Amino acid sequence: MSDIFQEVEEDVRRERYEQIWKQYGNYIMIAAVLLVAGVAGYQAWRGYDLSQRQKISDRFRAASQTAQTGNAPKAEADFAALAKDAPSGYAILAKFHLASADLAQGKRDAAVALLRELTTSSDPIVSSTARLKLAWIMADASPKAEIVTLLQPLTADDSPWRSAAGEVLAYIDLKDGGRAQALAEYQKLAQDNSAPASLRQRAAGIAEYLKANPDAGIGATTATPPSLPSLGASAPAISPAPANGATSGQGTKPK
User: Fold this and answer.
1) Which of its termini does the chain have fewer beta carbons within 10 Å around, N or C?
2) 12-14-19 Cα angle (round to 5)
C-alpha cells in the first residue's frame, strides 16, 4: 500500500517540475548563461586589471631608476606622465618624486606648487609628508612664522609627526641665530623617546657639538627636502666660525 502512495507522490512531484520548467525554463536558461558570462567577464577583468597594474609598476620602477642615474629631465617627464594617468596611489607617489626631480633642476616654484597641492590631501600621511618636505624647501627663504603655520597640524602633543616638525623648527632657529633656543630644542628632541632613533641621534649629535663649540654657526643653504619613501635625514653640517667670530660655515639640511 505504501508503494502506491510513493508512486503517486513521485508522479505529482514530476508533474510539478514539468510545469515549472514549461513556465520558467527559458528564464532559468538565461540566468544560467548570464551567470557563466558574468564569471567569465569577472575573470577577464581581473586579468586585465592585474596586467595594467603591472605595467604601471614597471613604469614607476623605470622612472625611479632614471632619477637615481641623475637624469632629472627624463625622470621629470616620466613621473609627470604617471601623476597624470596612474591609479591614485601611484599618482601620489609620482607627484612626490616629480617635486624632487623639479628641485634637482632648480625648478623650486614647480616643486613648491606640487607639494602645496599634496598638503590638501584627505590622507593624513600624504598631507603630513608633503608639509614636512615643503617646510625643508622653504626653511632658508621663508619667515619662521610661515613655517610654523605650515607645520602647525603636525606639532600637537599626540601627533606622530611632532618630532620631525620640531627638527625643522630647531634648524630654522639655529640658522636664524637663535642658538640657545635651538640647543634647547635639539636636546629635547634627543630625549624624546617617541621620536625615531635616527632623529634622536642627529639631535643629540648637534646638541653636543653646539655645547662643545660655542662659536660654531650654521650657514643658510638651499637644500633638498627628505626623500621618499623614507623620511630619514642626515644631520645638518655645522662648521666652526672663523677666528674673527663671524659666522660663515655652510650647513646642509636633511636630505
Assistant:
1) N
2) 95
Task: Tell me what the pLDDT averaged over the chain comes to.
Answer: 79
The separation between CA 53 and the C-alpha centre of its own chain, rounded to angstroms, equals: 19
CA distance 54 to 154: 35
Which residue has cell 602645496? 116
Taking the mean position of all CA atoms in its chain, how far away is CA 11?
70
Long-range CB contacts (< 8 A, 24+ apart) of 208-213?
209/238, 210/174, 210/179, 210/182, 210/183, 210/186, 210/238, 211/183, 213/238, 213/240
CA angle 152–140–69, rounded 5-degree value: 100
For the chain, first and last CA: distance in Å?
Answer: 94
pLDDT (tens digit, 9 = 90+) per residue, 88-109?
A: 889 999 999 999 999 999 999 9
Report which of 171, 182, 147 is spatially closest to residue 253, judged by C-alpha positions: 171
- Provide the H-helix boundaries in 86-231: 88-104, 108-118, 124-138, 144-151, 162-175, 179-190, 197-212
pLDDT, greater one: 62 or 38: 62
- Residue bearing cell 605595467: 55
Q: In 3D, which of 106, 236, 107 has the Cα closest to residue 169?
A: 236
pLDDT digits (tens, 9 = 90+) for 47-70: 756 777 788 888 999 999 999 999
